[in-house]
Automatic annotation (TrEMBL):
GO biological process: negative regulation of DNA-templated transcription; negative regulation of siderophore biosynthetic process
Gene3D superfamilies: 3.30.1490.190, Winged helix-like DNA-binding domain superfamily/Winged helix DNA-binding domain
Protein name per the record: Ferric uptake regulation protein FUR
GO MF annotation list: DNA-binding transcription factor activity; transcription cis-regulatory region binding; zinc ion binding
Protein localization: Cytoplasm
Cross-referenced CDD domains: Fur_like (cd07153)
Source species: hydrothermal vent metagenome
Gene Ontology cellular-component terms listed: cytosol
Major location (coarse): cytoplasm
Subunit structure: Homodimer.
Length: 93
């Protein structure tokens, strides 16, 4: 299969199949950008640059605990969440 090109439609079809099977998750950001991540990675949140589209992943236990506290305060049992923080990365400031 060397030097064989794969069409974009094939790539998107396979990604959709992986998503439907639960192998990957599709993340849609407010800037119109979408990315795919493996489903079996530890939970993390995202910083998204509104200028260049750079995405950084981060984990913060204080933020995680605060989200659970807020949910409990309002009578919710938190089952899942996603946090996207939008701003300008170091290179775009």
């Amino acid at each position: 299969m060397q030097n064989e090109e794969v069409g974009m439609a094939t790539v998107y079809r396979v990604l959709t199949q992986f998503e439907e099977s639960g192998m990957i998750n599709k993340l849609n950001f407010d800037n119109g950008q979408s990315v795919f991540e493996l489903s079996n990675v530890e939970h993390h949140d995202h910083l998204v640059c509104v200028k260049c589209g750079k995405i950084d992943e981060f984990s913060d236990e204080v933020i995680e605990q605060h989200q659970h506290d807020v949910a409990e305060k309002y009578g919710y049992q938190l089952t899942d969440h996603c946090l996207y923080l939008y701003g300008l990365c170091k290179n775009c400031q």
